[in-house]
Every structure is written in C-alpha cells, then in structure tokens.
C-alpha cells in the first residue's frame, strides 16, 4: 500500500520527467533542422517553406535566437488559439471530434471532482473505521469509502453521488451527441462536391455465363435505377501489379542513394553486389545496375498492366457505381436490390483514399465464416494469451536456453549476458506482445472483411477496449490473468462477481493513481517529443533526400491512431467513473491527464498529424457507447461494493441506474446514431438542387472518371513512361483497380506511419 | 414417480377423451344446423350455401343419412388432400406457413426418434446404475440417461447424439427457411395490385406554424420524391366517432332482437326500461325507443364526422403516402428522409386491414419511454406474478373471506359452499390469470406502440414464449416459481445453473409425458370441437338473426391465434430437443402431437379460420429464432447434466455446439431475414414494368383513393343515411381515419374472435 508520501514522490518524479520531455521538445522544435518533424502538417498544406532558403548557413540548422528559448511553453496557448471552425478546415472533422473526447473528459469530471471533494471526502474522512483495524491501509484510504464503518447510514451519500454521477454523465453525453451530430451534418452539408457523394460500392455481383461483370452491372443498374444510373467502375485484381510498383519504388530509392553518394564523392563510382542484401554475389557498378533493374521492372509492369486490363478473370465481383445525383446514390445505398440479400450488396462508398482494396472481393458466406473465426480467435486471444507468453517466458530463462541450445552454454554463462537474460528476457515476451497487439487486432479486423480503413480502425478499437478492460483494468483490480478471471466468472454466481470486484476496487486506488501518472502524464509528454519520427527523418534526410519532393516524402506526419489511442482514453473514463464514488482522490490525477492530453493533441493535430482519411466523425457512436459501458460497470461495481458493506438496502435503489443508463443508450442510439450511418434524402436533394442551379452544365461523368482508381495507378502518374491513365478511352467504362488481399501483414504499419509509399496515402498528394 | 403402467393409464384416458371429442365433432359437423360453425370459411368465400334451401324441413337441422355417420373420420384425409398452392390461394400464406411449423416438428423429430431408439435406448437400457440404488425410480428411467453409471464411457453416445441432433435440426431449419423465403417471394410476386404495395406510412410529421400537416406532407414529398409522389391521406383522430358507431351498432342489435320478438309474438309489443341494463327506469315501447335512440346517435355521428373533417386539431401527425410506382414506395420505405431520425419516419404501410389505428400518433420519445416501461413491467410480470396471485389466494380461503366480509359468515359455513371455496377458489385466481395472460401481453404490446396487428401478435408471441419458458418449462423442471428461480440464478454461478437444471431434467420426463398428452392430445382434439363458437352461434342465431347477412355476422370463424398458439408449439420443440438425448421415451408422444395437430389445424384452416390479415409469413424469422433458442438451451442443459455425471471431458466438446448454433442463427438472419423485412427494388421494378406494359392507362390515383380508410367509415357504407364516403370530393386529398388509443382494454378480445363489430374485421367483408 502506497502512502500519501509515496504518491508524492511518484508524482514529483513523473512531473519532472514530463517537464524534461517538454523542455526537450521546446528546444528541438525551435531548431530549423527539425522543422519538418514538428510542423509537417503545414508543409503538406503548402503553408510553410523550408527555413533553409534564407539566413546564414548555420541558422539553417540551429536556432541562435536566445529570446525564443525563453518562451519555451508558448506552444500551449498557441495550440488552444485556433477556433473550432478553422480547425475543422485545417485538420478535418475526425480530428476535431477526437479532441472533443478529451474535452468531454473534462466536462464530466470537473463538476464530479468538485462535488466529490465537497461531499464525499468529508463524509469519508470523518470516520475512523480503519483506525482500529489491523488491515494495512494508507492515508489515502482515509479519504475513500473504506473508512466508512460497516452498515453506516453514511453510504446514502455514496448512493446519492452515484445518481448525481449518472445523471451528469448522461447529460453531458446527450449534449455532446447533439453537438457532434450537428457538427457532422454541417460538415457534410458544407462539403464541396466529392466522388463518394455520388458513388455506391456494390459487392457480391453474381456470376453470369453470358455477360461479363461490367456488362452485368451496367444492365442491372440501367434496369433498376433507370433515371439515376450514370457510370460504373469494375474492380480488377491488380495484385501482382501492386507488388511490382512497390519493388520498383525500392530500387528507385537505392538508385537515389548511390547517385547521391557519387555526387558527394565523384572520384569513386559506387559499387554493389547483386546477391542477397548486397553482400554476396558479383560486384557491379551500382548506378548502372539499379538503372537497368528499374527499366526491367518497368517493362514487366507495363505488360502486367495490359494483362490485367484484358483478362476477364482479373475482374473481381465488385464495382463502384456512380449516379447522376446524390439522391440516386443515397437511395441505392440504403435499399436492398434483389430478393437474395447475399448478392448485389450496396453500401455508401467510402472516400477513395479510405477504401481498403484488398477486402472488396470476399463473398458473403466467407464473410460470416470469417466473423465466426475471428470471434472465437479474439475470445482466446483475450483470455488465453498468457499461455503462449508463459511458455515463451519459460524458454527464455537461463536453464531453458541451455537445454534448448546447449552449444550456447559457454556464451550465456558470461556474467553480463547472464544478468541480461535473467533480468530482461522473461519480461520482453510480454512487452513485445503488448506492442504488437494493436497490429494483431488490426490484422483480425482486416481478416473479418471490412472494406474501409476507418471501419477497420473502429473495429480494432473496440477489440482493444475489451482487451484493456479485462487484462488491464480487471486484471489489476482482482490481480489475475484474464484466464484466471474467466474461471472466477464461470464458478461464481452472478451477484458475487460485482461484489468480488467491487471489494477490491478501493484497495487498488493507489496503483491506478501511479498508472495514470506514468501512462497518462509522462506518456503524453513523450508523445509530443516524436522521438521515432525525429530519428527516421534525419536518417532519410541524410541518405536519400535530393529534391524537395524527396524531403517531403521523408516526413512522417503520422495520424491519430484511433484504434489504439481511443481505447486508452476510455480506460481513464472507466477509472474516473468507477473511483468517483469510491476514492475521489483519484479524480484530480485524471483531470490533469485530460487537460494535458487535450493541449498536447490539439498541438499535434494542428502542427503534425496528417489524417489518412476523413470519415466525418463516424466513430462517435462507438466512443459514446464505450463511455456508457464504463458508466454501467461503475454502477454495478458500486452496487457490489455497497452490498458487502452491510448496506444491502441500496441494491434495488442502485439497480435502477443501470436500467436507466441502458435505456438512455438505446434512446441515443435510435435518436442520433442514424445521422452517423445513413444518408438522409432531404439533405441529398437539397445539395443536388443547389448544385444544379449553380452549375447546370457540370460534366459529372468526366468529374467522376478515375476517382475510384487504385493508388497504384495514381502513383504511376509521376513517371510518365509507364502511365496507364494518359489514355482516357478505356477509363470511361473500365478502370483498373486492384484487389484481393496481398499485403495484409505489412499494411497496418505502412498505412499508418508511412506517408511515402503506402497504399492509402498517395491520393491526397495528387 | 410415475411407472410405465401409470403412463399407460394416463395415455388410455387421454386417447379416450380425444376420441370422444373427435366422435362428438364427427356427429355435430354432419348436422346441417351446425354447418356455419364448422365450415364458416366456405361461406365467407361464397362457395357454400345454406343447406336450408333444399330438402325436407327436418333435414334442415338434422342429418338423417346413416351412411355419412359411418365415415366419421373421413375429414382427416380430406384435410390432407388440398395441395399447398391451392391452400395458399384458399387461406393465405400465413396459414400455410403456420401449418409448416407442425411439419417441421415432424421433420425434425421423426429421424431423431428413430436414431434415439436405435442408439440411445439400447445404450441406456443395458446398464444397471439404478438397480442397486435407493433412489426412487420408474421403469421409464431405465430407458433414460439416469441408468448410465457415473463416469461411464457410454456418455460418448449421448454426446454424439447431441451433435447429430444439432446438425439435423439446423439442416431442417436451413432447408425450411429457404423454402419459406421462396414461398414468400413467389407469393409477393404473384399477388395482384394491392394498395399497400404503393403506400408508405409516415409517422412523426413535425409541426409547422405556417402549414397544416396535410400541406406539409404534400410539400415534403413533392420536394424530396418529385418523380414518384402520387397522393397522401392524413390520419384523423376519430376517437369519439368510433365510439359512436360502436354504440349505434349495439342499439341496432337490440332493435333487431325486439323486432324479431315482436314478429314471433305479434300480440304483445315488447317493452324495455330506459335505465341501467334495461332493469331500472321507466318502461317504454322497446322498438320505438331503440329506433329513436339510433336516430339520435346517427345525428350525433354525422355531426362528429363533419367536425373531425373540419377541425385541424383532429389531424394527428401521421399520413399514408402513396407513390406512382412500387419502386418509389420501396425507396421511400427503406430510406431515411431527414437528418433528424425522429421525424418523418417512413415504413412500408401494413395492409389496410392489418393497421392498428390507435397507435399511429405516438411521438418518438414517448415510444422509447413506453418500451422501457413495458420491458420493466414484463420483467416483473414474468418473475413476480406469483406475488399478487398468492395474495388473492390467501384472501380466497375460508378464513380470509370470513375476516374480510364477516356478514358472509353464515353463508360460507354451509357445507356445499364451504367445500366449493376450499376446493376451488384458491386455484381459480391462477387459472383466471393464465387465461387472461395472452390479453395482458397483447395489451403490453399495444402500449409499446406497434402499428399493425401482425406485429402486435408477433411481439406478444415472443413475450408469451419467455413466460412459458420460465414459468412452465423451468418452473416444472426445478419446481419453483420464477421468483424463486430468479434468486437461484442470481446466487448460483454461471456453470452451476445448467448443472442444477440439467440434473432435474431426467426426473421430470414422466411429468412432461403427461403434460404432452393432456395439453397436446386432448387439447388439440378439443380445438376441433369449437364448443364456444358453437354455443354462441346458436344463441345469436336464435335471438338476432333475421336476414342472411345477420347470419353471416353471427358466424365466428376465428383465426389462428399466433400470439398464444405458436409459443405453445415452441414448448413442444423445447421438450423434444431437451429430452432427445436424455429420455428418448418422450419423443413418440411429441411426434403424435405434431402429427395430430397438423391434421387438425389443416382442417380448421381449410374449413373454419378466417385470417384477419395477411402478412406473407412475416412471423417466420421469430419462429426460426425460437427453435434455435430451444436447441441452444437443450445443448447447455445436456452439458450441465453430463458434467454432473463424471464426464467433464465432454464440456469443451459440447461447448462447440452452442457457438456453432449461434453462428448458424446469425448466418440465417443475415442470409434470409431481409427477405421478410425489406422490399427489394428489383422485384418492385419488375412488377411495375409488367403492369405498365399490361395496363398503360390504369388510374392508380382513383384506385388508391380511400384504400386507407378507417373501418369505421367503411362500415358506414351499409347504412346509406350516414355515409361519408359517397362524396368523393374531399377524399382525393383528405380522408378521415381516426386514431389515438381509445379502446385498448377491449380490443384484444374483440379483434380476435369477434368478427362482427371489431375494428379490424370489417374491411374484408366490404
């Protein structure tokens, strides 16, 4: 049990670390050489030039203006200055609504903290239930519910507090849902013409022996949407082509590297070896070798392009169908086309850059099987992940290694290596697993067959939240792996489970306070420093960058990683709601987290992150749902806790809360969720009418042509030689877009951080 | 514990009773005087005339043809003869699919019974676990799983059986879903033009200060569905009017009665008293009195009609909007109209005769509140209904009465009355409750705000199923009221509950065998006798019938009462699936039920029932879902049972089954349910195109005018004096249809059995 002074020490340590990070950040961001690491967003928007263009040579790299160092925290007010509407224009609605999650944290917890300190702390403090006992306790426990004696009438205060928390939280959530729904509608209404407004994604087009998929699609929509159908694009399986483009890109990078080397040192022509990793094989002239390689691949690529276009087998049963009006697209997206609900599945097309191309061709039955497999797999991942890790850990100790690989024995017996293995290896398996976890979850979501990056991130986020809830929250509260918990849940009666967990809640307060400080305070301060992008940028800048364009590609702005960051915020909501009525002392720590994180992420969103897609805050319903979940969990745990405190009369009174909260959830779902899922006809009609009046002769067909082109074709715009898009003839009806999963394992990491050659990141530059 | 001979006696008794019912039916149905009781369907379809028209006087009433009595069971093959397609034409798809539920029972349980008797019975029989024990057991238990000793490897046979049952049931269900979906689609495709194909029900039309609801509706749809909107009908609150019409109808009945009395006995003019129930007040000439009363009410009614039409306040915010094509209606029904999902709610309009008018005007927020209230109320009804009944029972004993009403003491002390009170009264409260229960559930569903009779019946059915499951099935198995069970569920761990229930399952086999015989065999035989309609018909026939039309109204064909009958069938599915692997001896009894009930209901559907609406088998998904539920329950109970039998190895093997079954359920839901819920555009377009080619000049607007008229206006077609429909001028835009709940308490009973003056039953006669 940590005492108040322990927590003070921990707080001081974390505050100092955070301050150190902030100071480092303040220093580094002022150096012109790091400008593209800390302000990439402005470069991408074309609103900032390299500082290199002016001033003395040394000032290109180091900032010598002493005054600027004095105001090292001035980024904070700067980050808060930009008004919301401007921020939406600057970074998109997704980012703005993501920031609102932190704001909601403040909105919910500031009044609750005040109320809890005004009411609950005195109620808890003026008891002495803990003094006489032999139970180990800290001074913090004097502020918590543990200090109230068994069967005391004072628990009425905690019950009333639970009611106040519930109503306040629901009120804030309701208001917020209203605001965000309005923001989304205004955002959608104010948007300029976009291809996805007119386009519907059609999947599972049935096979027809007489017609090609393209003909069939055209006939079907001409018959069933005669007044609205405009054009369609079939989706091609351009698997191999995509690989070739990527390979060429890599070769180009090497070529650039060697050319730069040669320029810097013209006396010696660089050489390389043709074998594995350039270490084996015969020695050749590097520049010539890569030039010829690129030419070879370029030819292959051109051939593959032709083949994909001509071979009817490379067409997958999916198409993007565009309509003459938004109304027509809204109708098609929301209706069922045929009596067989497994074919001609229509849905609103995601933004072109949001499409996850690899999943477009999965048939219906396969989708349901995949969902079952992932559900079972996730269950095992969640509850049984400790088993393989324990196994690896058992191998990764000294005896394990000596047994498995006896020839290493003399090596591992060395004192340094021995202590490394003993102190570090057992923990590393778990650490690696936890780092890799978001990728595993993203892989699972991809396997499930979702067709847009935004939906993939949402699905992964909910999986991650479940994992965090069982393995971090419950795992810390009742101290056991999820597997052990599972046994408890099965063997314990329904009313015992909240009791068991509820009883442990007050005792874990100090642990979670430390957790909030380490993960919430120091972690957030680390986020702003961007160590990894900083290092990578400078490596790339040194070895590869020749032109302005190269430098742009070397930047790694990153993006809000909704799939792993949002569930972590949810953990703070959960902690706050659970401890609000139990140990209010935890609340200020959470408040600091929300406030600090809000400022930091606002800064990052303004200056750094570059979103890969814009979903118009489609993730909001799931954020809302998870806060409601946390609220219900907190109510059930308080119920369990109070029933062990000799205050069973509270049970029926408290049981009302989850019922009401759940009803509130259902109400919000019915009332507001459709605004995030469906496309109202009235809005579509309004925009159509306006646009028709403004631009009566607009050529929509030409505008839409090529909009749902796979990035692999758009990327090739750069090198004119191999361009497939210069000939507009075939694009009107048949546009090549590749599909079928081919790089699932690597895409998650790429599409997130690698802005230079990922599948999804190319369109926003063209 | 009942022995084999006990069951034999019970079976003999039930078979004899059933045979007696069948004999009585065979005799009664041959009497011409009962012809309208046993063959009303044919009269309603105009395919049968009264036997009165020909033959000798006595033959009008009694069948003297001796030979016809010899073939007293020939209705059975006759009932089976009609082919399915003809039956769909004759009675509608709802009835045919309802019959298929019994057929599925046979399809599932015939092979399972054969398999169970071939495999499980020998496996169980050749043990002697029960012989040495002191446990009370019957010879039936020798055939059951109880006879297999603890920890025996023979339980593998039961596990294999569970797999076989699961796969066979799922296979049958899948095939059946396919067949029924196909039937439904063919039925919908072959249907003639019907108003509801073109019409969408719009609810929650927002208030507008400048426009009336009618104008607003027209403008909204002219703007947002410009090419498809045809016309609309606003819904009026004709609450009072409906009451007046009903009152007049009652008066007319009395007038008819007294006129008939006067005709039969012309010497004496009948008199009545004007006061309460005709027993108090001044004596007047009955015929004159009722004539003047009817005239008075008629005038009031005409005034009310005018007032409702003119008063803008009597318009409720709902309307039936019709479109030029099925395609336009299908689009409007499936899409969201505005960005606020609580206004302009559109859904496919139910058939005119299926509309439940009273619920059309409930606003959105009220709907969600009502759902919460009903959910809580149903929870209490399900688990706590024993409390008020126990209270009534405690009052309804001798001491209770003497205490509450001391002046009755001398009366209740009489031996006859005393024994009546002691033997009968305590049970009667429960009996009354169980008889009234379907009405309570229907009232709950109505309060929830559903807008069609078919959806009301479906909702009530699922409530009734839950009630039967907890109070009849589990109540009998673990012998306790649902309230006591609730305590058990809360206080027992998740893996103990299936054990507790599973352990009691084999012991209750004999009880359920008796239950099947009493409720399933004798009950079904009683159904065919139609005692209540028989008596009521003859009473009405004697007192009221003058004309052919009166006689038609005196018939009470009734209908399949889906809300109370279907859950009872489901109970047999549950028993069959649960006992198939435990006590196969129960299966033949269930087979007899399914076979016998199939024949009886087929006969009733052909000759008697007259459906109030046609939903096109929309109830199928819920039937399917409940059979799946029963299957999963049976798997969990077998799992619990085997884990108490020293065969815990079975748990993981058996745990696979519910997961797979649930996945199968999800698959079917995704694959087939849309066919029962949504309206594919292709089908709509196909019918539109066909029809436009066949009848290019069809006047749809005239055809649709007045189709969504409340029955209260249609009924008034009969008496020309007060008809409001003769003037077509106002009908084009404004048609009066009443709304707002006004007779919720009485409607359930009326709309089901009372074909003569209910709200819902009038349209199909006009």
Automatic annotation (TrEMBL), chains A, B:
GO cellular component: plasma membrane
Domain CSC1/OSCA1-like 7TM region: 370-642
Entry GO MF terms: calcium-activated cation channel activity
Alphabetical UniProt keywords: Ion channel, Ion transport, Membrane, Transmembrane, Transmembrane helix, Transport
Subcellular locations according to the entry: Membrane
Family: Belongs to the CSC1 (TC 1.A.17) family.
Name of this protein: Calcium permeable stress-gated cation channel 1
Organism: Digitaria exilis
């Amino acid at each position: 049990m940590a005492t108040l002074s322990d927590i003070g020490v921990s707080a001081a340590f974390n505050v100092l670390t955070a301050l150190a990070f902030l100071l480092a950040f303040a220093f580094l961001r002022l150096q012109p050489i790091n400008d593209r690491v800390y302000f990439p967003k402005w470069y991408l928007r074309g609103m900032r030039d390299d500082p290199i263009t002016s001033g003395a040579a040394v000032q290109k790299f180091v900032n010598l203006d002493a005054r600027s160092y004095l105001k090292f925290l001035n980024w904070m007010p700067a980050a808060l200055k930009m008004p919301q509407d401007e921020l939406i224009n600057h970074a998109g609605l997704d980012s703005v609504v993501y920031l609102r999650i932190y704001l909601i944290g403040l909105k919910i917890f500031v009044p609750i903290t005040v109320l809890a300190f005004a009411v609950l702390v005195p109620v808890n403090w003026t008891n002495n239930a803990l003094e006489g006992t032999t139970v180990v306790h800290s001074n913090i426990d004097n502020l918590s519910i543990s200090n109230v004696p068994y069967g005391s009438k004072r628990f009425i205060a905690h019950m009333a507090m639970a009611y106040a928390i519930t109503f306040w939280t629901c009120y804030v959530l309701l208001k917020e849902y209203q605001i965000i729904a309005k923001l989304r509608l205004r955002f959608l209404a104010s948007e300029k013409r976009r291809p996805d407004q007119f386009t519907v994604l059609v999947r599972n087009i049935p096979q027809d022996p007489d017609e090609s998929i393209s003909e069939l699609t055209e006939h079907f929509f001409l018959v069933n949407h005669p007044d609205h159908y405009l054009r369609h694009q079939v989706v091609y399986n351009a698997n191999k082509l995509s690989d070739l483009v990527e390979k060429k890109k890599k070769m180009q990078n090497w070529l650039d590297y060697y050319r730069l080397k040669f320029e810097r040192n013209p006396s010696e022509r660089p050489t390389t070896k043709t074998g594995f990793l350039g270490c084996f094989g015969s020695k050749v002239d590097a520049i010539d070798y890569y030039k010829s390689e690129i030419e070879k691949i370029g030819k292959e690529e051109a051939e593959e392009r032709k083949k994909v276009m001509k071979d009817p087998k490379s067409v997958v049963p999916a198409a993007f169908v565009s309509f003459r009006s938004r109304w027509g697209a809204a109708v098609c997206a929301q209706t069922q086309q045929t009596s067989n609900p497994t074919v001609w599945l229509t849905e609103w097309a995601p933004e072109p850059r949001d499409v996850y191309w690899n999943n477009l061709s999965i048939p219906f039955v396969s989708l349901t099987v995949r969902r079952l497999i992932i559900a079972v797999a996730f269950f095992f991942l969640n509850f049984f992940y400790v088993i393989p890790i324990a196994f690896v850990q058992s191998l990764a100790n000294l005896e394990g290694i000596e047994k498995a690989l006896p020839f290493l024995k003399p090596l591992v017996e060395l004192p340094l290596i021995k202590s490394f293995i003993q102190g570090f290896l057992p923990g590393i398996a778990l650490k690696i697993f936890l780092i890799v976890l978001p990728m595993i979850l993203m892989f699972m979501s991809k396997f499930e067959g979702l067709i847009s990056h935004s939906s993939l991130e949402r699905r992964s986020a909910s999986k991650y939240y479940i994992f965090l809830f069982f393995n971090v929250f419950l795992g810390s509260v009742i101290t056991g792996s999820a597997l052990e918990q599972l046994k408890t849940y099965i063997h314990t009666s329904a009313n015992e489970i909240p009791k068991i967990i509820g009883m442990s809640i007050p005792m874990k307060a100090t642990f979670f306070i430390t957790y909030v400080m380490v993960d919430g305070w120091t972690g957030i301060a680390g986020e702003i420093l961007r160590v990894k992008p900083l290092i990578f940028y400078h490596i790339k800048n040194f070895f590869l960058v020749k032109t302005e364009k190269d430098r742009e590609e070397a930047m790694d702005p990153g993006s809000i990683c909704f799939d792993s960051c949002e569930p972590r915020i949810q953990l703070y909501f959960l902690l706050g709601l659970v401890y609000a009525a139990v140990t209010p002392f935890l609340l200020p720590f959470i408040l600091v987290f929300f406030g600090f994180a809000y400022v930091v992420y606002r800064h990052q969103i303004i200056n750094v992150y570059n979103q890969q897609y814009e979903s118009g805050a489609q993730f909001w319903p799931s954020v809302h749902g998870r806060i409601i979940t946390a609220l219900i969990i907190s109510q059930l745990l308080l119920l369990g806790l109070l029933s062990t405190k000799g205050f069973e009369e509270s049970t029926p009174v408290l049981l009302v809360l989850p019922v009401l909260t759940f009803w509130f959830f259902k109400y919000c779902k019915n009332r507001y969720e459709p605004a995030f899922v469906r496309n109202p006809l009235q809005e579509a009609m309004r925009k159509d009418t306006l646009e028709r009046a403004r631009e009566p002769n607009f050529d929509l067909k030409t505008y839409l042509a090529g909009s749902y082109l796979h990035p692999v074709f758009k990327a090739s715009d750069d090198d004119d030689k191999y361009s497939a898009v210069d000939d507009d003839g075939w694009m009107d009806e048949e546009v090549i877009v590749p599909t079928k999963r081919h790089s699932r394992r690597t895409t998650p990491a790429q599409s997130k951080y690698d802005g230079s050659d990922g599948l999804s990141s190319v369109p926003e530059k063209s």
